[in-house]
């Protein structure tokens, strides 16, 4: 079936508009709100030129726009620096003693948990120097122990833009206290090594940062293709169009990929059994996913009732990015992702748990997610080019720098990615039964619960969760057997699979209530019981607090498992 759908996609896929958009975006700075709006208008104009209707929403979203920054040395000389979005604006400067966070440094991990309080304590009253990127969790940890500023030493000769807010989307009133309260900057490796050496001598520097933070109206294009049969359910394909500078590989190529997919699916609209929506987000970095959060908030009830899956398109079509062997997706979607990747590229993909970034905004509603990025460089190619790990641009270290220009695009790779995304969406929009297997998610739950039990030993009992999970797994087995045997109508089967997502996704990816936004920090599997891992090293006088937490988390888990079982017509 997928081979037929891929053939249909290839017959109608035209990369002309996509190629033109990449070249146009290569000359446009979409970091600036006014220019970003012009970029969105260019996307809308390209769609309308093909006779495709598009709605241009204009939400007012909360953005932080980085300006000049520097590290001023005692002799008055300055080091080049970049302030991450949402860092405290401190144009007058803040002066302090440097301290190198040796215990917290080393390497360039993209998701490093904050070090222990004892490891951070030496930063109190000082300007902390860390290695890697300016990550929200680490800056928040330094701020919490009293650091007055932070300098992130990036691993190469370039400085990477980023953001240090832990707030997802526009803040609520209670979130305002979590906006960063210290200045932070990133510097390159050469200057960073010098600062590390200076820190050992107790040197003092002054951090200067300038940022403009406030409300900005931003265009948000949404294109909708209704189902041919009138079905209100839909597949959502999305990606951000704002960028750091020109941002060709992150995410100009993604915007172009979506444009090509839109044109192809419009040509095949008569065959769609579910609708398709494509949305291009503003405020990805400067708003910490403010565009997608606005959409999730504004259309929450429609998404809840009708969205069968969301697919994120970020940084496809980049040079040397020819590997599809590791693809982020939720567990229930892994077999389908593997089938599409194999059909389009001939490669075998392994699904990995999505991190909480890149506009993965819809877990709070309970929507199955597929992809985050797609094509990436292999580890061997990264090593051959002397690259360190980055999150986008297919692995090119031009990511989030002024070097993310037209040279980063590879139009052959972009066509492959367009085939991949178009086939993924087309397959979901035409599938008789949604191709998501909740037996895999339930099996993942079991492994998570068993791991939690191993952490606490005999001090806490997770057997009630396992007993309820036994019932769910048996019911899921009966349900899928009945579907495969044709004993359950396809429409009922798909409705059940979709309803399961509303229960199973939030309990596995979300700490807070539905329709709210968790902090922009990674969430462990089954977060309600995840802190069981702390038990072995927790002081005896704190274990009672964790026991209460695990009791409440287990109650939430059992409730979700029972509600999921109740959705199944067999069991």
Automatic annotation (TrEMBL):
Concerning Pfam families, the annotation shows:
Peptidase_M28
Which region is the signal sequence?
none
Keyword Zinc on entry = yes
Q: What InterPro entries has UniProt attached to this entry? A: CPQ, PA_dom_sf, Peptidase_M28
Annotated keywords:
Carboxypeptidase, Endoplasmic reticulum, Glycoprotein, Golgi apparatus, Hydrolase, Lysosome, Metal-binding, Metalloprotease, Protease, Secreted, Signal, Zinc, Zymogen
Q: Which residues form the Peptidase M28 domain?
A: 222-421
An annotated GO BP: proteolysis
Assembly and binders: Homodimer. The monomeric form is inactive while the homodimer is active.
This protein's name: Carboxypeptidase Q
């Amino acid at each position: 079936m997928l081979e037929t759908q891929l053939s249909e996609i290839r017959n109608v896929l035209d990369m002309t508009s996509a190629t033109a958009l990449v070249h146009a975006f290569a000359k446009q700075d979409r970091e600036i709100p006014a220019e970003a709006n012009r970029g969105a208008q260019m996307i809308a104009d390209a769609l309308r030129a093909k006779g495709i209707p598009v709605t241009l929403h204009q939400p007012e979203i909360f953005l932080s726009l980085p300006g000049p920054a520097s590290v001023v040395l005692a002799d008055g000389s300055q080091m080049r620096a970049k302030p991450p979005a949402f860092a405290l604006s401190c144009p007058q400067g803040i002066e302090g003693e440097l301290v190198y966070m040796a215990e917290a440094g080393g390497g360039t991990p993209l998701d490093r948990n904050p070090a222990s309080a004892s490891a951070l304590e030496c930063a109190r009253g000082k300007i902390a120097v860390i290695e890697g990127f300016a990550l929200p969790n680490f800056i928040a940890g330094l701020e919490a122990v009293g650091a007055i500023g932070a300098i992130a030493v990036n691993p190469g000769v370039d400085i990477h833009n980023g953001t240090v807010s832990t707030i997802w989307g526009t803040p609520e009133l209670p979130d305002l206290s979590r906006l960063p309260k210290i200045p932070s900057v990133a510097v390159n490796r050469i200057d960073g090594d010098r600062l590390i050496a200076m820190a050992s001598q107790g040197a003092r520097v002054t951090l200067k940062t300038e940022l403009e933070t406030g409300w900005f109206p931003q265009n948000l294009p949404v294109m909708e293709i209704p189902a041919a049969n009138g079905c209100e359910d839909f597949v959502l394909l999305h990606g951000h169009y704002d960028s750091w500078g020109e941002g060709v590989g992150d995410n100009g190529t993604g915007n172009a990929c979506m444009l090509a997919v839109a044109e192809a699916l419009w040509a095949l609209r008569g065959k769609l059994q579910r609708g398709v929506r494509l949305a291009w987000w503003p405020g990805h970095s400067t708003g910490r996913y403010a565009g997608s959060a606005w959409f999730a908030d504004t259309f929450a009830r429609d998404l809840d009732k009708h969205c069968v899956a969301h697919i994120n398109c970020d940084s496809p079509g980049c040079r040397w990015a020819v590997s599809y062997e590791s693809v982020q997706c939720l567990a229930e979607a892994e077999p389908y992702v593997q089938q599409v990747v194999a059909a389009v590229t001939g490669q075998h993909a392994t699904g990995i748990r999505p991190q909480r970034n890149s506009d993965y905004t819809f877990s709070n509603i309970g929507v199955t997610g597929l992809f985050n990025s797609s094509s990436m460089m292999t580890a061997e190619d990264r090593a051959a080019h002397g690259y360190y790990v980055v999150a986008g641009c297919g692995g090119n270290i031009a990511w989030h720098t002024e070097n993310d220009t037209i040279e980063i695009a590879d139009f052959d790779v972009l066509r492959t990615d367009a085939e991949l995304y178009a086939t993924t969406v087309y397959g979901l929009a035409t599938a008789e039964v949604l191709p998501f297997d909740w037996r895999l998610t339930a099996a993942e739950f079991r492994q998570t619960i068993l791991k939690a039990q191993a952490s606490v030993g005999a001090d806490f009992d997770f057997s009630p969760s396992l007993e309820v999970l036994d019932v769910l797994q048996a019911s899921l087995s009966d349900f899928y057997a009945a579907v495969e045997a044709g004993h359950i109508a396809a429409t009922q089967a798909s409705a059940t699979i979709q309803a399961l997502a509303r229960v199973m996704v939030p309990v596995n990816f979300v700490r807070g209530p539905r329709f709210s936004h968790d902090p922009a920090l990674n969430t462990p599997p089954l977060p309600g019981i995840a802190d069981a891992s702390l038990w072995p090293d927790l002081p005896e006088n704190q274990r009672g607090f964790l026991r209460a937490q695990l009791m409440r988390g287990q109650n939430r888990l059992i409730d979700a498992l029972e509600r999921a079982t109740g959705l199944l017509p067999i069991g």
